[in-house]
Amino acid sequence: MAADGPDGWRSARGERVPDLRVFLVGGILLLYPRISRRGLVFGTYVGEVLAESDAVRDLLAFWTRGCLVLMALSLVVGLGISAAGQPVTGNLTGTAVLLLSAPFLYLATYLRARAPAPRVAARQAELAAAPLEVDERGGDRFAKLALAVCVLTALGTVVHALVRYESLPQRIPTVFQLIGLTDEPSTRSLAAVLYVPS
């Protein structure tokens, strides 16, 4: 396979190969439940004995099926947008669909994980959990400040892009290489300006 700029990879015969980011992110999502603490299943402590039960295996199968469906959906969306003439936007949108839909799958799996946890395991989790308390008044000031800086930076980026949009050329050089070389330029569009690293 050879690199083919921002719109993906091409095989030896010149056929476009889907973006590898969807597979990378999907692979991390598939591995997630297998690298967490024994007895902790999707944020719910079920106990070490129940971690090997059929209920937890069914839960892992639900997560795996959900991840595979989301990966397929992401590839279809990304390749569809790429085929419509927006390869850069399609490439990034496929990954964005996966990243934005994964929390909903996690929430659904978390709600299912709460069912097999017996009262004993729930009581053990309560005893093992340390309460989060702020001793001094205003102790969460730094967290609020960091959140405010992030929100203002994001809003500033969007406002700046909207204000300067008309002054941009029709073809925008897009940087995808680590050394800063420009690959093929993309067509000016609001999506390309807002979330293509350039």
Structural description of this entry:
- The chain is built from six helices and seven strands; from the N terminus they run βββαββααααββα.
- With 198 residues, it is mainly alpha-helical.
- Strand 4 (40-41) and strand 5 (44-45) form a beta hairpin.
- It is flat, with a radius of gyration of 22 Å.
- The strands form three sheets. It has a three-stranded antiparallel β-sheet, with no helix packed on it.
- It has two domains: 1-130, no CATH class; 139-198, no CATH class.
- Residues 1-17 have low confidence and may be disordered.
In what order do the strands lie side by side in the largest sheet?
A: 1-2-3
Query: Averaged pLDDT, please?
Result: 75
Q: What ranges have pLDDT less than 50 throughout 5 or more consecutive residues?
A: 1-17
Spell out the helices and strands N to C.
Answer: EEEHEEHHHHEEH
Short summary:
The protein has 198 residues and is mostly helical.
Provide key terms for this protein.
198 residues; mainly alpha; 2 domains; three-stranded antiparallel β-sheet; 7 strands; flat
SSE arrangement:
Elements: E1 2-3, E2 9-10, E3 16-17, H1 20-31, E4 40-41, E5 44-45, H2 54-83, H3 87-113, H4 119-128, H5 141-164, E6 171-172, E7 186-187, H6 190-195
Antiparallel strand pairs: 1-2, 2-3, 4-5, 6-7
